[in-house]
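Q: What would this complex look like in 3D?
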Amino acid sequence: MSQSLEAYLVLSVLLFGIGTFGFLAKRNAIAMLMSIELMLNAVNLAIIAFGAFTPELAAQASTIALFVIAVAAGEATVGLAIVIAIYRNHRTPLVDEYASMKE
Amino acid sequence: MGLPETVPYLDWRWDDLVFLALAGVMLGSALLVVLGRDIIRSALWLILSFAGLAGIYGLLGSPFMAISQVLVYIGAIAVLILFAVMITASKRGPARLVFQRQWWAGAIAAILLVGLMITTILLTEWPHNGQVYAADAREIALTLFEDYLFAFEVLGVLLLAAVIGGLYLAKRDDDMPQTNNPRQAMRDEEERA
Amino acid sequence: MSPILSAEEGGELFIPPQVAGELESLLVLLVLGLPLAGFLLTGLVGRRLSRPWIISVAAIVAATLIATYLAFQALGGTYGEHGIKHIYYTWIAVGDLRVEFGYVLDNLSALMLIVVTWIGALVHVYSIGYMAHDPGKWRFFAYLNLFMFSMLLLVLASSYLVVFAAWELVGLSSYLLIGFWYTKRAPALASKKAFLVNRVADHSFLVGIMAIFLLTGTMDFFESFIEWNVAEVDPLIRNAVAVLLFAGAAGKSAQFPFHVWLPDAMEGPTPVSALIHAATMVNAGVYFIARTTPIFASAPEALLAVAVMGTFTAVLAATIALTQKDIKRVLAYSTLSQLGYMFVALGVGAWLAAIFHLMAHGFTKGLLFLGSGSVIHAVHEEQDMTRMGALWRKIPWTHATFLIGALSLAGIPLFAGFFSKDTILDEAFVLGWWPVYLIGVLVAGLTGFYMFRLMGLTFYGKSRVDPAVEPKIHESPATMVGPLVALAIPTIFLGLVIGLPLGDSTIKHWLEPVFHPGEVILGITFPEYEFIGLNGGLIVISVALAALGIGVAIWLFGVFNTRARLETVDSLARRDRVTRALYTASLNKWYFDDLYHVLFFRLGGLVASGVMWFDVHVIDGVVNGVGTLTQRAGVEVRHIQTGRVQNYALDIAVGLVVVAAVFILLAR
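A: Here is my prediction, written as structure tokens for the whole assembly.
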């Protein structure tokens, strides 16, 4: 089982699905950001798994995964800063009370 | 002494047992992140989920990635998230509802997506021989600093921009009104009274 | 389906005009350009001038002198029998269609030039006095110049399409001038009526011109004449095209059934009535048919239609003129009647007579209208003849010239009208159209009657003028009397100069080359003229009938100081049912206006409101429906835009699922 690509990919998909659900369902903006991190992790897992089972791509896969991690870090920084900025204006972290995009 | 070839009674390989355990930890804590009521606990479960993934990286023969995962995700991002949670946490505790009203639609969409992707994965003939190949740190370093040098530099600039942008956005602007949400302003008024 | 002529015969019969010299082309350009420049200048700065007429009158006088020079050169034979032609530039060149802007100056255009420019110039001078107190006179003179330009373009043009453009331009000027006093209701309505009636006819005209292009492949008069007669065309189509062109001509010349606009056009200022609606524009139809005789000559049935319509209009208008009370309306119906004569002449093949009558009638009727303007002026804008009478002593110049015009129109020997009208009747009889001759002679009698009824009511008998106005009656100023005297000269002498000797006159020599091809195609030959014999006898008959008409009119309405018997007229009109019905019918113009009212206004209005219902409910419904649908859809679809991030994210997820599912299904 640990020797098959499919198992890792299915695991990645499940993690991605949990992240998707979290992003679509959670009310708290920070919880949504956490869900995004879960999804990014799922993607990373898929990349590493592909690399591990394809010898000539192993190094490239790790490199790309590193890039993803770095970009995720940047995304988390900016995303949290935005959440804090919005929170300061609206006094709530709950996204379903943000309606300014409608107006 | 040595362990037997397979797990006793279950007749599994030890790798498989470790894989299942790590996968269970990772998915379980991820579910708790999403379903949990308390945002601080969610953040802590998130750390556990990251750790589980780091273990799976190790299982896949990438100790370098596992270490990176621990350093960046657990050491940096999770901590950042915890700080943000503390800054924004409402005095009134967790919100009444964890999910927004249309959470069921999100659930259906997520399940459909997962179903589709699993179907695709299982229907595809993957060309591999079941051998896991490990890339060592030296190989990764050579790829990163030779083939992807330019991308690496650009990434450095991106991170710098993210840091500056994050600072700018999060900086408290005292000239701005405290809130322009009338509902929240009323709530503030009540709290003061 | 056989062609009328072979190609060689066509080439022999139609001799194209010579190429014009540079001097002539420059002069023609001046003749056209001066009125146009006058129009533009007067239109732009006329309002600021203390004498708004100065530019336009100067332009017309100059153009008249140049045109007279050109016309005399042409008639004198300097340019040969077939005239000269010059193309200034190619106006339109699309595929096979080439329309060239140029002029042709042959004897026919030369005669038209003289009529148009001289009457035009005299009317301009007359208008200085007539319009002296009108605040909008700068506008009036600008329009008059525009009309002169258009009319000159019409008689000089060498191609159908240029004629059509000029045709529309004279229509426009006519519209503007009839409605000159546009703040009053009647002139505004009259101008609209004239425009609409002409529009119907012009449509037919345009279709006819298109048919000519389709059949001959050219828009040039002389090329189309050859092609038309050489081409293999079904006789039915030849006749149809000719009838279409005739309908256009009938509209402009106010022939039945398009006659209704002309009497109403008398709402315009009197100089306009004289120039446009008596002497020049209404002759455009006659001129056009004369110009295109080679087209009409190969369509004998269409010519029959022309003759029948002309005859009918002549009788119809003459009978209406018998009872009208408005002095200008009597003259208007008289114009219709005389135009009917011209169409009779065109229809029977006496084209030379038609042009002769056009000239004679142009000068005569111009004189009569200007005279009526002078009368109206004298009695303070009163047009009703029952409120005039005994004016001959008070306005002697007007009376004298008017008498000359009336005698000429009635066909009294030695006046211009006698020669031309008699030529028409004579040639109609000689060519075998004796029913037409009989009706024509009858109309000649009616003409004498209604002209002298007009004379009697206006100038003789007892005065019925408003007592308040009576002491103020005065002769018109010199600018008005001058043109009257000037027009009286050709009215007296035109026939003597160009109509003699009878049967072999000067005008015949001038126009013979123009009409020769048509006469050959139609196959008509005139027998030897016998003054002592058939032709002389015809003259005696027509003059006798005219004299009879005049005599009856004088007996009823008086002459100079004799007593009028107006009571007798009344009792005659009321004697029994038949005479009463006839009298009322004539007074009501044989009810044609009412018929058209029912036919086009009521019936057409029904159709129009049906169409409007369709437009409002179906066409607009569809258009507005599409708009409403979009608007409603927008309002409804707007709810999708909740402003919530997670709804948008859900949409992305759903989209992802759909796209992925489609790919998987397609891949299988």
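A: To summarize the key features: Chain A has a mean pLDDT of 86. The helical segments of chain A are 5-25, 29-53, 58-90.
Q: Very helpful, thank you.
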